Amino acid sequence: MVKTSNTFVEKHTVIEKLNPMTKVLAIFSLGLGTLIFPNSWLGLLVIIGLFIVAYIAKILKEFTKVMLGFGIPITVMLMFIQGFYSPKNKTMIADFGFASLGLEGVLYALKIVSTLLVFLGSFYIMNKTTYTGKLVAALTETGLPPKVGYLILASLNVVPQMQRRMSVIQEAQNARGVETGGGVISRVKAYIPLLGPVVMSSLTDAQERGMTLETRGFGIKGVKQTSYVEVTKSKLDKVLRSLLIVFFVSVLLITVLMKTNVI
């Protein structure tokens, strides 16, 4: 059986079976740890680890496209800006005539890129391996108000829903003989008639969804609300959470010691 919600496709991997809160903790622990560490080496190591995790989760191809598609242009841009024009530059490693490339700027650019890629990669893995309903159920179990959980669920689903709706409307337009191909101008002209039905149907869906929640007593106070989505916590989750906390605390201590020149 395959479940699809947002960008999630069930593949029965060990990463997929992890509790969503473990993955959320991984995003913050790895991302913040990379952010506070003085140089980019930790970020590069974490990125290599994320590629391994993506391989285990069977999403290595898609993960690589996202990381390279974002990483290459942002690296080139930051290398140019920070490498040539950063006020931190003191050690010049190359002279291009119009400007000199500074070592400090290059290292700072690598630090920024590695941090961004850690946040992007960890969030992408969580998004691709976590059923949205299970994520919201896990957040609700931690004490998040059900209404806030619903807002998160609706926000995560709004873009995929509009994409599916636009695809259906576009197919209907094609069946009626409306041209949706051609050049850029032709495509823009073809998409303008789609906006009206998409917006109106989205507003109608929002109204119907609100009425459905009211009839099911979603806003009733003084009762414990339940969810049909079951969220479990395995021994592996407990081990990984402990390791992630130890990782962040260790990085924090090492960073403090490095800044005080103890190590």
Automatic annotation (TrEMBL):
It is found in: Membrane. GO terms for cellular component: plasma membrane. It is a multi-pass membrane protein. The keyword Nuclease does not apply. It comes from the Bacteria. Signal peptide: none annotated. Its main location: membrane. CDD domains: EcfT (cd16914). Pfam families: CbiQ (PF02361). The chain crosses the membrane at residues 26-54, 66-85, 105-125, 239-258. Keywords: Membrane, Transmembrane, Transmembrane helix. PANTHER family: PROTEIN ABCI12, CHLOROPLASTIC. This is Energy-coupling factor transporter transmembrane protein EcfT.
